[in-house]
Specification:
The protein has 359 residues and is of the alpha/beta class. The chain is built from 14 helices and 13 strands. The relative contact order is 0.14.
Amino acid sequence: MAAAPPSCRTPEVAGWQRAPRGLAAVSQHERAEGRSPPPNRSHLHDAGHICILKDASRCESLTEIANLTSPDQFDAALAIHLYKGGRHLQGSRIPFGIIFGGTDINEDIRSEEKRRVMGAVLGEARFAVAFTTKMKELAAAAWPDASQKIYVQYQGIRTTPIETFDWCRFLQNADIPADTEDLHIFLLICGLRRVKDPLYLVDVFSDWHRKDPTVHLGIIGPAVDPLLTHEMKEKIKRAPGVHLLQEMPQDDLHAAMRRCFAVVNSSISEGMSAAILEAMDLDIPVLARNIPGNAAIIKHKETGLLFSDPQEFVVLSKSLMDDPIMKREIVTRAKDYVKKYHSWECERKAYQNLVLRLR
C-alpha cells in the first residue's frame, strides 16, 4: 500500500504543466460546497506545476475535451472519478493518473458497460488513488491486473473558519429564530444530487421539530441536480424545522459548521466525505449514515455516530444532546483521528510524488 493524492469526491480531469505548459485535469465537477475539488491544486502549484481544472460535463464538444489532453498544451492529466472523468482520457496522447471518486467503485462498477470502460481506462493509467483500503480492495478485485498501480491515500484536511462570520445573520437568512434558547442546529452539507439522498431525513426531522422546536436541520450545497432541487424546495415548504440554505464560501461554511450542534451525512454512497472530516477538525460531532465510505472513517460512538435509518438518527441525536460528556469525548477522539490520519502536509507530499510518475 502506498501513498497518493485525494481530496475530492467529484468526477473531473485535471491537467497540469510545468511552465510554460502544464497539467490538465478533467472532471465532471460537482462544485462541492465551495471546496477545491481534489486533488487540491495548491499541492501541484507549490511543486511548480500549472494546473488547469475543467468540468468535463460543461464541455460543449468532444473537440473541447480532446484539446484538454493535447500534448501541444499539456504534459499530463489527472482524472477525478474513474468513469465520469477517466473515460475522457481513454486513448489519451499524454500520460495520466486516476483518483477514484467513490460512486465509480461503489455504484458504476455494477454496470457492465461502465465496468468495461473503467477497466480500459485503469489499464492505461500510470497510477490510481483510492481514499481507503476497502476501496482499493474493491477495485483490485474487479481489475486484478491493475492492483499494483492502485495507491491508498486518505484525504488531507485543512479548515479555515472566518473569524468575522455573522452567526445571527446566518440564522436570520435561514428563517431560524435566533432568540430560541438551547438552539440545536444540524447541518447536512452536500451537493444536491440523488446519491447524497438529502431528503432522507426530512420527514423524521420535521416530526421531531414539531415536538422540540429547538432542533433545526439546515441543508446546504450546490444545486447539482435541478429536478431534485425543485423537489426539495417543494417538500421543505411543508417541513417545518428543515431549511434549504444558500451555498457559501468555504471559510464561511467552516465558520457556520463551527457554530452548529452537529454535522450530518445521509449519503447512499461516499468515497470519503470531506464535510465529515472537516467537522471532526472543527470539534463538531458527526452523525452519518452507516455506509462503507462513512464507516471507514467513523468508529461508532468513538469518533462519531452511525445510523442505519431515520428513526435511529433521531435516537442518536437525542442521546448526543442529553449527554455532553459523551459528546465531548467523541469530539476529542475525532480530532485526534483527523490529526493522525488526514494530514494536509502528508497529502501534499503524496500528490507531489505521484505526479513524478507522469513524466
